[in-house]
Amino acid sequence: MPLCLPHRGSALLNALRHGGAESRSWSTRLFYASLVAVTLWILPLLVAPGMIETVMRRFHLSSKSYPEWYLQQVVPAMYSFGNEYARSVADLPLDRVFTDPKPVPTLWVNHYPPRLFTFGNRARAGRPPFFIYCRSRFRGHELLTKIRVNGDDEGGFQMTCIEEKFR
Amino acid sequence: MLIAWRIVLAGWLLAWFINTPANLILFWRGGDFPITAHPLIPELYRAPWLAQMSLTLPILGAAGFGFAHPRLLGGIAVLLGLCSLLLLGHIFSYNDATYTTAFWTSLWLIWGASRLSSTVASAGTVHHAIALGQGIIGLCFFGGFIGKLTPEYWSGEAFFHLYMVQKDSPPFIWIREHCSPQTMRYWATWFARVMVVSEGLLTTLILWPTRFAAIGTACVFALMILLATPQLLSVLGSLGGLMAACVFLSERRSPATEDR
Description:
heterodimer, A: alpha+beta, 2 domains, 5-stranded antiparallel sheet, 6 helices, 31% helix, 25% strand, B: mainly alpha, 1% strand, globular
């Protein structure tokens, strides 16, 4: 086989044409299959509301089960959706929090809106109880979530999702 | 192949440990204010010790620069992958895309380590190492690209709020002081569109010749880090190492890389 310089052609085509015995290796095939599988998992997001809800629930930590959520965690989703976050001491109606005039300040978040509470210094979160509100929007759909945060005797926080709406 | 493997390892460790001191402090403080109940995340994945351990254990990966035994290097790669996975499932760190890119890059390290037993990698292995490396980078951008195909991004609304209004770093503080909201919105719109199109192009990276892939990746990474936030170094570092390894492998011209 003549020497083929990989920089002179498409990386994938070079691998397909000149892969040799490596192309028949099960671990190589499994690796490509995993890339294809994740790609096929992401694509329906453009057209399937059920998929949008599944991924938005991943972002709001409200998937149906931990394994379902954890499996999705390896799927790249940096800076996806229009995400917002709000916090209030008063229990506000979920539909009102993100509509003008907004009753409390809201913040935009690149991904995973609850991270503004879960990631970082919760000492600044204020004394519980309080409420966290999250909204994610994508192609005309949105998921709204209200989380109640209570305190416990040891200074910890107890999070409970008390309301959610997908439309 | 060993040199390429170590280039990827270097990028991985550099990216991982850029934010580790800050994250360790956060996780330590997080332990003082634990989340003791959550409807989804189990107790183990809310334990501060698990996050702290997963964050620090990859320091053992530095052994990959001093030893060359394929099984040891394979073990290191598995350790790095496991630590990424643990942090992706932990309530303190699930949101950090550093661990997503680290996870995919560690898969390449695991695959690559199993090819280190022969002194000279076959040309086939080199070709697949490059294609898989570029494929991983493309995949990491594919998720974000699809997630941005929504009016909130294309109109610039998301970037306007995330960067022009909320970001407290020098260029954005200056922009807020010197530009009207209309101007900021205009620039946010074009910034968002450039990023969406750039990410869209990078999703096809596996099809590109490696030199062009390296140039494209370097341009987009630089744009993201300079205009968005230097914190992205931890997310992009492992992918940068992967791209550098692809370039290294593709520039090898020795006939020893011929398929045997």
